[in-house]
Amino acid sequence: MKALVLAEKPSVAREIARVLKCNIKNKGYIEGQQFVVTWALGHLVTLAEPDDYDIKYKEWRLEDLPMLPTNMKLKVIRQTSHQFRVVKNLMKRRDLKELVIATDAGREGELVARWIMELANWKKPFKRLWISSQTDDAIREGFANLKAGQSYDNLYNAAVCRAEADWLIGLNVTRALTCKFNAQLTAGRVQTPTLAMIVNREAEIKQFVPVDYWTIRANFGDYFGDWRDRNGNSRIFEYTQAEELIAKLKGHPGLVKDVRTEGKSEPPPLAYDLTELQRDANKRYGFSAQKTLSVLQDLYEQHKLVTYPRTDSRYITTDLVPTLPARLKSITVGPYAGMVKPLLQKPLKPTRRFVDNSKVSDHHAIIPTEQALQLAHLKTDEKNLYDLIVRRFIAVLYPPYRYDQTTLVTVINGESFYSRGRVVKDKGWRAVTARQEEKEEAKEDSLPEQTLTRSQKGDSKQVVDLKINKSKTKPPARYSEATLLTAMESPGKFIDDEELRESMKGSGLGTPATRAEIIEKLLYNNYIERQGKELVPTSKGMQLIKLVDPALKTPELTAKWEQRLTNIARGKEGKTEFIADIRQNAAELVKSVIADTAVYKADNVSKTKCPLCGKYMLQVKGKKGRMLICQDRICGHRQSEKQDDFGFKSSKKASRINQKLISQYSDKGSIGQNLGDLLKAALSKENEAKKK
């Protein structure tokens, strides 16, 4: 008897099959003496469409909302139905005694496999392959230690709840908005509050009124000092006050009042989880969150150089500590050899900043595997991303960055001027980072670092120069993908309720695996656009936020849902109550949209009229380029932006189709007559153009 292995992608299946010595290739699967390895193509099964429950839902109407099926159904995705048939037929084979789920080791991977099993009616035993890297050794070890399939039932329940919640909220609110305002508008439980954060930030920027302020700097020859008042404030909002201070200071020497030197130590940064890596890749290389995930997936699956990408942990477990020397040896090449050598010369003693079992749930931090590194095989983007991961991995194992920080207070006629400098004692982990690790943005009035000469309390200093510098207060910065990911990960500051804000720590909008997709959806639907590194809301996005129910556009409700999904995955909550609450929320949100009295005005109207109803068409982004879509949803006509007024590319075939349409519509009443006349005029115009 053999075991059936179900992988998520053909590429992963081929690698598993090779390791398991399966060599007989068939259409949709690979067979060996002990195993038959097959694959999904991402999802093969999905939740049924509304019209699969009732044919009336084919037409979008407000009066049919909310749609709340008693039991959610599954259906095979038409585009990949051929592979589903292959898997289903394999599951019927009598010589296959058990199934091994080898899809991605996470919530969505579990859903991919379980839905296939449910629709194919798999009743035999099943086990779970749970690995964090795709190396041969990891695969062999994983199959030697397969987990009981039922151990992941809670994870599957959480995945089902996520999918059903998105269906119930997303489809109902999207249909309600679209029908109510006769426009193509979408909403979702994660997408909408994320958009709201971008829109609210834009409102803050537009409402911001800059204010002039002044600062004073004194030059003492070998160092400078910045003025502070008794409360530590450096900004002066009245120019006359700045002038009065200068008058008070002129002609007076400086006197060193205080010299404080403190030994400081900065521990190494934590290892990467997906969100932190996406942030750094955006800052360093301008990668979008989606691009980072895509390149990282190739490093994981194709090159086998890094561990599982879609993780939310920045720590590893104690059982991985013995593997660290082998991982370091695998990267002892090129620019990393000199950095790794000191670590391999003595026993490794990683601290709790790296090793902490309590802070790892499904997967540990993203670190290199034991796979030998061949830099020449990597593309430029892969090298750049891998470089971030490797340097961070090495840095975590290095000692702290240590320095002496000196703060000098020099007084001129009773007014204090502050100076700050540092002397590096041990570069520690900073010696291995690609560049200086980027700190949080310094406040405008923070003390700059400088080289300070040795000074003692009571020293007299000549005042070489006094200067007034003018500045303006700045509005909050627009979100970049890096800062938006941070806000999605930690939306607590946007939640007013203090108790809830505290409970939200560790939860956020979406998951590390889905945040990139959410940002891409907002871009695709023209709710936001990229301007350099900044994300700016469009008129459509700003209008949408005004139309949706307040509950859906605040992070509070969504963060609560995400926290509950985490509890379901950990067995702390059941799915029944969660879905009941989601159904109630969906009904309330639809009711809110129906009662709304606002007006929506499209901002992407083209100069091209719809050939069917005569209304001006909307310019939208389609999967195959820019499209023109009739703004009247009931009409529904759509065409490529490059096509002529009737949606046909200029050709003899188009002319024949136009002639057919003329004869078809000319005798169908006044509307048909009008359309026939329009077609005749267009055809005549085309013929005249050809003659010229």
Calculate the terminal CA-CA distance, rounded to whole Å. 76 Å
> Would you identify the CATH architecture of the largest domain?
3-Layer(aba) Sandwich
If you compute it from the alpha carbons, what radius of gyration comes out, rounded to the nearest whole angstrom? 32 Å
CATH topology of the largest domain: Rossmann fold
> What best-fitting shape do the alpha-carbon axes yield?
globular
- The computed structural class is alpha+beta
**What fraction strand?**
15-25%
Mean pLDDT: 88
Largest sheet: 7 strands, mixed
Could you name the CATH class of the largest domain?
Answer: Alpha Beta
* DSSP strand count: 22
**How would you name the oligomeric state of the polypeptide chains in this document?**
single chain
Strand order of the largest sheet: 2-3-4-1-7-8-9
Word description of this protein:
By secondary structure, the protein is an alpha+beta fold. The chain has five domains: 2-145, Rossmann fold; 173-205 and 478-566 and 577-594, Topoisomerase I, domain 2; 212-268 and 401-472, Topoisomerase I, domain 3 (Distorted Sandwich); 275-396, Topoisomerase I, domain 4 (Orthogonal Bundle), CATH 1.10.290; 606-691, no CATH class. Helix content is 39%, strand content 18%. It has a seven-stranded mixed sheet. It is globular. The N and C termini lie far apart (76 Å). Residues 436-442 and 647-673 have low confidence and may be disordered.
